[in-house]
Structures are given as structure tokens and as C-alpha cells.
Specification:
Number of helices: 3
Keywords: DNA-binding, Nucleus, Repressor, Transcription, Transcription regulation
Strand content: under 5%
Order of helices and strands: HHH
Radius of gyration: 30 Å
Shape: elongated
Pfam families: HLH (PF00010)
Helix content: over 70%
Low-confidence stretches: none
Number of strands: 0
GO cellular component, one term: nucleus
GO molecular function: DNA binding; protein dimerization activity
Protein name: BHLH domain-containing protein
């Protein structure tokens, strides 16, 4: 291999590494841009699920929804955990005939 033929290969290798670095840099910039949007969507999903949980759990525990319009997230979760702890453990699976009766 002559020195002249090695130079274009080295230059090509360098430029491909530089291109990869640019792509990595662009990807990092894209992640920086999208991160706040992803976090906003994640928080919105959490808040929506907590609101649904609140509307489901309050009637089950005998609380008036209108009196509990402003509940902290931790309170909603604590009420749900307490409610689930108080549900009696399911007994053995019902017999096949019993399950059919439950479905109809």
C-alpha cells in the first residue's frame, strides 16, 4: 500500500467519524429538546390516572366527591391502598358451574 493510497482512506475514516459525531450531537440536541415534552406527557398521564382513581375510589369508600375536590396525590394513593387492604382475600376459585352462573 503506497502512502498516497493510505491518505484518502484515513481522510475518509476521519470524515465518517466526524459525521458520526455530528449525528450523535444532533441526537443529543434532539433528546434535550424532547425531554421536557416527554416529562410533560408523563406528568399528564400520572395526573389523569390519579383523577380517575379519585373518581373511582371516593364512592367506594363512602366519601362525597364534591367535598373532596382538592385532594393531594398522596392522599388519593393512601385511600386506595387502605381500601384495597380492607377488601377480603378471595376464597378458593368457584366451581365451574358457579363461574358459569356468575357470567349469566
Amino acid at each position: 500500500m503506497s502512502p498516497r493510497s493510505a491518505a484518502p482512506e484515513a481522510a475518509q475514516s476521519y470524515s465518517s467519524r466526524l459525521g458520526a459525531h455530528r449525528k450523535t450531537g444532533e441526537a443529543a440536541e434532539l433528546r434535550k429538546t424532547l425531554k421536557p415534552l416527554m416529562e410533560k406527557r408523563r406528568r399528564a398521564r400520572i395526573n389523569e390516572s390519579l383523577n380517575q382513581l379519585k373518581t373511582l375510589i371516593l364512592p367506594l369508600i363512602g366519601k362525597d366527591s364534591s367535598r373532596y375536590s382538592k385532594l393531594e396525590k398522596a392522599d388519593i394513593l393512601e385511600m386506595t391502598v387502605q381500601f384495597l387492604k380492607e377488601i377480603p382475600a378471595p376464597s378458593a376459585a368457584p366451581a365451574r358451574d358457579d363461574r358459569a352462573a356468575l357470567l349469566h
